[in-house]
Every structure is written in structure tokens, then in C-alpha cells.
Design brief:
With 122 residues, this protein is mostly helical. The chain has helices spanning 3-15, 20-33, 45-60, 68-77. The longest helix has 16 residues, at 45-60. It starts with a helix and ends in a 45-residue tail after the last helix.
Length: 122
């Protein structure tokens, strides 16, 4: 049994415990073995501000979003120039003879849902 399966089995057994005293004993053992760590947000305040700004530009009509069908179609055709965003590694000076690297088949743009700081599930 690998470590992931052992953890799953322990969680399933933990869900069966309803006695408050037993839960406190288990909590003490877990606290000793794995002290609680503060979860860090994956996004910085600057990232959230940027997403908020992009979202407001989208809502105001200043920028345009693309449907999933459009991005899938473009990626399957290898069309990357439709997106206004180009990463610094992919930029070449105008008139440059330097050839850009071949584009991958991944979608060219990132279309976030509305930025939210609330968890999806409560």
C-alpha cells in the first residue's frame, strides 16, 4: 500500500470517530507529527489586483474575451497571433530575421473566470 492509500484509509477511519474525547486525542497526535502551517495564497496582492483590473476592463468592454471554442480552434490551427498577449520570450524586434520558436498546441490565451478570494466550496 503506497503512502497516498494509507493517508486515505486514515482519513476514512477518522470520519468514523464521533467521540469528542477521541477526536481530541487524535488531534494531539496529528499536531505533534504535523504542526499546522499557515496556508499561503497562491496569488500575491499584486496578482489579485491585476486580475481585478483585467476583470473590470472585460466588464467595461475595453477588452474582449474569447470562448473556449475559439481558443481550441486557434490552437488546433496553430494560430497564435490572435491574442494580444505575447510573452517576452516570443517577442522579436520588427524586421528581425531571427525566427521565432515553433508554437506549441496549447491555447494562446488565459481566460480567467471572475477573480474571487472565496473558496469554491464551503
Amino acid at each position: 500500500m503506497d503512502i497516498a492509500m494509507k493517508k486515505l484509509a486514515l482519513v476514512q477511519r477518522l470520519l468514523l470517530i464521533w467521540d469528542e474525547a477521541a477526536l481530541q486525542r487524535v488531534a494531539k497526535v496529528i499536531e505533534k507529527e504535523a504542526p499546522e502551517v499557515e496556508e499561503e495564497d497562491d496569488l500575491t496582492d499584486e496578482d489579485i489586483a491585476e486580475l481585478d483590473q483585467r476583470h473590470s476592463r472585460r466588464l467595461s468592454g475595453e477588452s474582449k474575451g474569447y470562448t473556449a471554442e475559439e481558443t481550441i480552434s486557434w490552437s488546433s490551427q496553430g494560430v497564435r497571433e490572435r491574442s494580444t498577449f505575447r510573452s517576452p520570450q516570443r517577442r522579436t524586434p520588427k524586421g528581425s530575421d531571427k525566427q521565432r520558436p515553433k508554437a506549441s498546441s496549447a491555447p494562446a490565451c488565459f481566460i480567467p473566470n471572475t477573480p474571487s478570494r472565496t473558496p469554491l466550496r464551503s
